[in-house]
Design goal:
The protein has about 575 residues and is of the alpha+beta class. It is about 35% helix and about 20% strand. α11 packs antiparallel against α23 and α15 crosses α21.
């Protein structure tokens, strides 16, 4: 190249003059065509042959599988009265990523509706989770007000909340469900599989805010839970609850239970506990309040066990109702221990031993048999084993093997010490006396056909024992306050010291178990009052009046015909229910 002002000339570079080989161009073209063919083939394969992958990825952006909750089954009493029902409610939830952009004024409006402070809302919306609940189970009306605010990132979904119309009256039997509508206690837990049903699902199309804009299809329809009809009678339950509640207030007692059983079918018509709780408002509940004491709590039954020993004695042929027993003026030594009676009777017949509630008399009857014989009786009556109803927390009680019994222990077990039972166990055992000696299983649900029982006593002995127990509520017996106007009733009192730290203390469990009407028994009613205060703690004074009140109301509610003339109740000095606690000392 020449300098400025001179002519510029370019020399031809031989490298630039050489042309590219034709095969290289054709190779590049072939590679491009091959790549395009591969892409085209892959596109045809993915979109036409194997298109599930792309469809799945696409649907993930707009389609969702949404759970469709099943409606929980209802619980009703034997007459169809609803005791538990699920009602539709709404729950408010948020996507923190979207809702965190809400203005302070919007948060205040939302907090006022949900009864939450702005600080609480901000704390929840600051969560690192993709999804948070703000308020569960609010009314549909309130949910509509929240929806009307049209707040970004705030959504709602339909749920169900359990409602119990009878409140405290049925609380311990029905139990309750949690916020997910799953059974936690009582019948709700015992029949969970039947009541819960099975949730369904549906495929929906959602917009970018997560709101459903179209139902695509139902994948699996929900299967609603089945209804459960209980054996319980709501009227009888209310009568028992009222009587027990009044007794606890009158005697300033710690707690109590009442069980009512239909003699013909073994159906549990009522079971109440006090103190109770409101299953519709469980914000402040302790474990003690939730216990169904009739099933879970055990106690030394005391003298309510005496009729079984008397029946065993008569059944064996060694004793008759008129057989006299020397009660040694109310003092009887077994080894180096002495059993006492409250009253110093020199001699009592077997029938009078039950009427007067003599510890000495029944101990001498029990000691006339081998421990194995007495243990087999208690075992056949269901003691030492759970009732088998499937109710949560059923207690089996305590019944030691007969090989471990000492003579004094056998003597005290004959009048209900050294053994522990639940109230439902003792109530069921009395069915063997209320029926013709056979024991039928209990049922929490309605029974249409009479069940088959297991024979424990002969019909003759069972009928004779009913007549003997009728004298307990007659003048001269320990439970005169158990009388029911218009009906013949029979039963037995119990008063037992409680054990704390392995020692008997001056706290008592008062009880009465009876049946009515004697001419054709229809009901067994068992009453237990825990730690009555004041001067009255005997079963005949504390528990017997509750039995009378519940039995009279229940018999009339069931339209059971009277079997005795109506007359004023006869009270005598012996009717104070005084019976020795009997520690075998």
């Amino acid at each position: 190249m020449s300098r400025i002002g001179k002519t510029v000339t370019f020399n031809h570079n031989p490298l630039l003059l050489r042309g590219l080989p034709q095969w290289r161009g054709r190779l590049v073209l072939a590679v491009l065509l091959a790549g395009m063919s591969v892409l085209l083939g892959r596109s045809i394969y993915l979109q036409g042959v194997h298109n599930e992958f792309l469809q799945t990825k696409g649907e993930m952006r707009y389609a969702r599988v949404q759970e469709v909750p099943a409606t929980r089954g209802r619980i009703a009493d034997r007459h169809g009265t609803l005791l538990a029902v699920s009602t539709p409610v709404s729950s408010i939830w948020a996507l923190p990523g979207e809702a965190s952009l809400l203005e302070p004024g919007q948060l205040r409006q939302l907090g006022q509706l949900l009864e939450m402070s702005v600080a609480d809302l901000n704390a929840r919306l600051a969560s690192e989770r993709d999804f948070v609940f703000l308020k569960r189970q609010i009314s549909p009306e309130l949910a509509e007000k929240v929806a009307a605010l049209n707040l970004s990132g705030i959504y709602q979904q339909q749920e169900f909340r359990r409602y119990y119309p009878s409140g405290e009256v049925m609380a311990h039997m029905l139990g309750f469900t949690n916020v997910e509508d799953r059974g936690q206690e009582g019948i709700e837990l015992a029949f969970e599989r039947l009541l819960a049903g099975q949730s369904g699902s549906r495929r929906v199309v959602k917009d970018r805010r997560g709101q459903v804009v179209e139902d695509a299809k139902s994948i699996r329809p929900p299967r609603d839970g089945e209804d459960v009809m209980l054996a319980m009678d709501a009227k009888v339950q209310y009568l028992a609850y009222t009587a027990l509640h009044d007794a606890l207030q009158q005697h300033r007692a710690k707690a109590g239970s009442v069980v009512v059983i239909d003699v013909r079918t073994g159906e549990v018509l009522a079971l109440v506990n006090a103190p109770a709780f409101n299953p519709n408002n469980r914000s402040r509940l302790s474990g003690e309040q939730l216990r169904n004491r009739g099933f879970t709590d055990t106690f030394e039954p005391g003298s309510v066990m005496k009729p079984f020993i008397a029946a065993m004695a008569i059944e064996s042929g060694k004793f008759r109702a008129t057989t006299p027993i020397d009660t040694h003026s109310g003092r009887f030594s077994v080894g180096n221990r002495t059993i006492h009676d409250t009253h110093a009777y020199r001699s009592l017949t077997v029938a009078e031993v039950i009427q007067k509630s003599s510890n000495v008399g029944v101990a001498k009857m029990g000691l006339a048999f081998e421990p194995e014989t007495m243990w087999k009786l208690y075992d056949r009556l269901g003691f030492g084993s759970p009732p088998g109803l499937g109710f949560p927390g059923e207690a089996s009680g305590s019944l030691r093997a007969p090989s471990t019994w000492k003579p004094i222990e056998q003597a005290t077990m004959s009048y209900g010490h050294g053994i522990s039972v639940s109230l439902i166990q003792i109530a069921r055992a009395y069915l063997a006396l209320a029926r013709d000696g056979d024991l039928v299983p209990l049922s929490l649900t309605r029974v249409d056909a009479p069940p088959t029982g297991t024979q424990v006593f002969s019909p003759k002995v069972a009928r004779e024992m009913r007549q003997i127990m009728e004298t307990v509520v007659s003048p001269g017996g320990t439970a005169i306050r158990a009388q029911v106007s218009g009906y013949r009733v029979a039963g037995k009192t119990g008063t037992a010291n409680k054990i704390e730290n392995g020692r008997y203390v001056n706290k008592y469990v008062s009880s009465f178990v009876g049946l009515a009407p004697v001419s054709d028994p229809r009901l067994v009613v068992a009453v237990m009052i825990d730690e009555p205060s004041g001067n009255q703690h005997f079963g005949g004074m504390v528990a017997a009046p509750v039995f009378a009140q519940v039995t009279e109301g229940a018999l009339r509610a069931l339209s059971v015909a009277p079997d005795a003339p109506s007359m004023p109740l006869q009270l005598t000095a012996m009717g104070d229910g005084r019976e020795r606690k009997g520690r075998g000392m």
